[in-house]
Specification:
Elements: H1 2-10, H2 16-19, E1 32-34, E2 45-49, E3 60-64, H3 71-77, H4 80-87, E4 90-95, H5 117-132, E5 140-145, H6 147-158, E6 165-169, H7 187-190, H8 198-208, E7 218-224, H9 233-246, E8 254-256, E9 262-269, E10 272-280, H10 292-300
Parallel strand pairs: 3-4, 3-5, 5-6, 6-7, 7-10
Antiparallel strand pairs: 1-2, 2-4, 8-9, 9-10
Helix pairs in contact: 8-9
GO molecular function, one term: hydrolase activity
InterPro entries: AB_hydrolase_fold, Esterase_phb, Plant_Biomass_Hydrol_Est
Protein name: Esterase
């Protein structure tokens, strides 16, 4: 089942031709592997990109790859390093070592604050950067595509004390993929058949870190209407979840079209955009194209 289900995700490397617009110059900083960065229960690899010029207290962006991908592949095939050069933030590229090359977004451990597995390993990477690179703990964010988008939801759900916001490209809500039998795949969720009330979705996040009363992460969600791998209903379910976590309603504050085939809905909290959903009309699972990363960076405040 997992092998068949992953076939749609195996196509993710085709985004390489769509995402990158210009190669880094010869004088650009290089991606480096970091070892011994802290607790790492699932043996993730850590790759780090620090631009030649960073801000005095740089922000940190975790950029998580798709299934079958890797940290170096996501570095090469996306715009985030180039945008880091422009705006002076640091990018962490986690890399899965298990056979599927998919992030663990399903186990009870990864879905619980301090529970273990991939989410804890990634938090260790962040803490390492905060300590070694004088980065700003109040400006830590996550993004990713497909499996990486699902991990983005996991990180914001289980570690709201670490991540202030995220941008998830073609993912599913936090805990939608939850399993207890060791499986990496949840067909009901992937097929868009797991439907809950906003309260139920929000409760899943709140139970991941009981007693947490700090700031709620901001979330930007992207999904193609023709996604046949992680189907489009997951987009609406994720909006339900993150608006409920923020304590705001389901009615958009505003709706517009930044591009002809995009419909963007925004949900404000205290006059600022807390949740943003961008529906890509006729977009497939691999809808991501050049320029979308800039929208994500702008939403997260990394361009300021």
């Amino acid at each position: 089942m997992l092998r068949r289900a992953l076939r749609g995700l195996l196509a993710a490397p085709i985004i390489a031709a769509l995402l990158i617009t210009t190669a880094p110059s010869a004088s650009a900083a290089q991606l480096t592997q970091v070892t011994n960065f802290g607790p790492n229960p699932s043996n993730l690899q850590m790759y780090l990109y620090v631009p030649n010029k960073v801000k005095p207290r740089p922000a940190v962006l975790v950029a998580s790859h798709y299934c079958t991908g890797s940290g170096p592949a996501f570095y090469t095939n996306t715009e985030f390093a180039r945008l880091a050069d422009r705006y002076g933030f640091i990018v962490v590229y986690p890399s899965v070592t298990r056979a599927s090359k998919c992030f663990d977004v399903a186990s009870p451990q990864t879905l619980r604050h301090g529970g273990g597995s991939d989410s804890l390993g990634i938090v260790s990477m962040v803490r390492h950067v905060l300590q070694r690179n004088n980065a700003d703990p109040n400006r830590v964010y996550a993004t990713g595509h497909s499996s990486g988008a699902m991990m983005t939801n996991v990180l914001l759900g289980a570690y709201p004390d670490v991540f202030r916001g995220g941008a998830a490209f073609a993912g599913v809500p936090f805990a939608c993929f939850a399993t207890t039998n060791g499986s990496e795949w949840n067909s009901q969720c992937a097929n868009g058949q797991l439907v809950k009330t906003p309260q139920q979705w929000g409760d899943l996040v709140r139970r991941a870190f009981p007693g947490y009363t700090g700031p709620k992460p901001r979330m930007q969600l992207w999904h193609g209407t023709n996604d046949d791998t992680l189907r489009y209903p997951n987009f609406g379910e994720a909006i339900k979840q993150w608006t409920n976590v923020a304590g705001i309603g389901q009615t958009p504050t505003s709706t517009d079209r930044p591009q002809p085939n995009w419909v963007r809905t925004r949900y404000n909290l205290g006059g600022a955009v807390q949740v943003e959903g961008i529906s890509v009309q006729n977009g497939s699972h691999n809808f991501v194209v050049a320029g979308m990363a800039q929208y994500a960076v702008d939403f997260l405040g990394l361009s300021r």
